Amino acid sequence: MQGSGTTTSVWMGTVAGPTPGGSADLSSVRPEVIVVGAGIAGVTTAYLLQRSGKRVLLLDDGLPGDGETGRTTAHLSNAIDDRYTEMERLHSESGARMAADSHTAAIDTIERIVEQEGIDCDFARLDGYLMLAPGCDPADLDKELDAAHRAGLTDVARVAHPPITHPGPCLRFPRQGRFHALKYLAGLTQAFLKRGGQLATGAHVSSVGQEGDRAHVHVGPGHKTIEADAVVVATNSPISDRFAIHSKQAPYRTYAIAARVPKGSVPDALYWDTLDIYHYVRLQPEADRDLLIVGGEDHKTGEARDMDERWAALETWTREHFPMAGAVEYRWSGQVMEPFDGLAFIGRDPAYGGRVFVATGDSGMGMTHGTIAGLILCELIHGSDSHWAALYDPARKMTNKLGTYLRENLDVAKQFLDHVRPSEVEGEDRIEPGQGAVLKMGGRPVAVYRDDAGALHRRSAVCPHLKCVVHWNPGEKTWDCPCHGSRFTVDGKVLNGPAAAPLAPVDEAPATR
Predict the structure, then answer these.
(1) Which of 469, 476, 481, 458 has the alpha carbon at shortest distance from 419?
(2) What is the 3-state secondary structure (H, E, C) of 77-141?
(3) What is the spatial distance between Cα 255 and Cα 51, in angstroms, rounded to a whole number?
(4) What is the CATH number of domain 417-496?
(5) Rounded to whole angstroms, how far apart are CA atoms 441 and 136?
(6) What pLDDT score does 315 carry?
(7) Tens digit of each residue's pLDDT (9 = 90 or more) over 35-63
(8) pLDDT at position 416
(9) Which SS3 state, helix, strand or coil, does residue 252 take?
(10) How far apart are CA 199 and CA 193, in angstroms?
(11) Which end of the chain has less neighbouring CB within 10 Å, N or C?
(12) Distance from C-alpha of 449 to C-alpha of 428, rounded to nearest angstrom
């Protein structure tokens, strides 16, 4: 991804195996397509384009998988997070069917690539169980079953209970999947390079543009210009525009923990419950034990600081449902871009004239949405029609979710009040080591962090994207923008877009109220 994040204790880390292929010489590249962002969407798109005959340059300012792909729990599912009843309401019965077809095709595509490229990534087909949570209406499960059948998933069945201890009925979705996302990404990157693709790591893209029938990117502090027939922006949250897409999706943080369980004590399957902020569970098999991965406890980015309580709530829920779980060995959080109508934005960026493409809006299904992005964009860039292109079109209107659209954008507008709010603490001396706070300095909001040695790090608290004020994230020790999800290190470096520039430095003067 364009940018990477610090983690509390993340189970996957960075791309497995050796760094793939080194870094391309940008002074001599002549690509037909430039792909920005080496996460699941970017690498899949680059691989499929290179395999189809295009000359592709893949750019990332970190290593492949350094961004949100390295934080996924790696469910491969056609059981839509927002449910098929909602897909029908928002996108019609035919739209829900296309959503099912495309996510099913994504799992099939991953399986085929794993086999063809010989990628050892723990891929397996397994069942998924949508479990009725306590207090939820059983009729909702029946409605979802009917909608799934209308969407073409006729093998989904209602069963009395899942293969774990759970009091209620559930829906069984057969032929779902799971894999180790970074092992897959490493293998896919190697396959891209073996087919002649070029990869440049440590290549920060500062801007994207189009002039006539040519697209271009500016790279590095020298703003080197690289041209191509097309540019694909696959940076989780697009860095290519300011309003066109960002007004139609919102950033959320989601939390995960992993605990060891005895080998074979938990049936290998995917599990989800029907709570509004739902829990999601899977296993990662290991040689002598299994790793139980549990996620949930989501909130809008920048609008909570109780990260420890959220991880604790996940652990409590885990022990209620999986009493065999041992001590929690890993915990982390990730960022999910939630489109207001539940489906990703994949296609031509509406802010440009047709040569800049975008993939964003993973909606908690980043592994399949990212693979769908590769399938759709490969066809569009070759000038072919994609059966699913209209469903995922970034220019689509939000008429069916107008209330959500207005409410979420009003929430963004309210964030600008942070510019006139007082300091969060009385002075810098009140900031504990390893913590941060926004203080006022000369009437300006300043992000102040005190490191473990006691040294202070000051940066402007104003996000370069659209000038919202960042908030301190004590769980990840980052500065997070509550408007559109940009994230920064304590020294101001960009971790996540849409911001493409760091937090500005400020004078080393004491902050006051």
Answers:
(1) 469
(2) CCCCCCCHHHHHHHHHHHHHHHHHHHHHHHHHHHHHHHHHHCCCCCCEEEEEEEECCCCCCHHHH
(3) 36
(4) 2.102.10.10
(5) 49
(6) 96
(7) 999 999 999 999 999 999 999 999 998 99
(8) 54
(9) strand
(10) 7
(11) C
(12) 9
Sign of the four-CA dihedral 107, 90, 273, 482: positive
**pLDDT given for residue 48 in this prediction:** 98
**Are 236 and 360 contacting, i.e. CB atoms less than 8 angstroms apart?**
yes
Which pairs with CB-CB distance under 8 Å and at least 24 residues apart come from 158-166?
Answer: 159/129, 162/129, 162/131, 162/269, 162/271, 163/129, 163/267, 163/269, 164/266, 164/267, 164/271, 164/321, 164/322, 165/321, 166/131, 166/321
DSSP string, 414-479: HGGGGGTS--SSS-GGGSPTTEEEEEEETTEEEEEEE-TTS-EEEEE-B-TTT-PBPEEETTTTEE
Residue whose C-alpha is closest to residue 282's, from 293, 291, 290:
293
| Cα 464 to Cα 114, 421, 485, 503, distances in angstroms | 40, 19, 12, 7
* 305 HSE (CA, 13 A, CB side): 12
Cα–Cα distance measured from residue 166 to residue 267, given in angstroms and rounded to the nearest whole number: 13
Task: Report the C-alpha gap between 28 and 33 in whole angstroms.
Answer: 15
Contact 162, 129 (CB under 8 A): yes
Tokens of 113: 């690539």
CA dist 46 and 1 (Å) reads 13
| Alpha carbons 372 and 392: distance in angstroms, whole number | 10
Amino acid type, 476: E
Tell me the Cα Rg of the chain. Answer: 22
| 33-72+182-247+342-400: CATH, from 3.50.50.60, 3.40.50.920, 3.40.50.720, 3.40.50.300 | 3.50.50.60
Q: Which amino acid is at 504?
A: A
d(CA 204, CA 321): 44
Q: Where are the domains of the chain?
A: 33-72+182-247+342-400, 122-177+250-339, 417-496
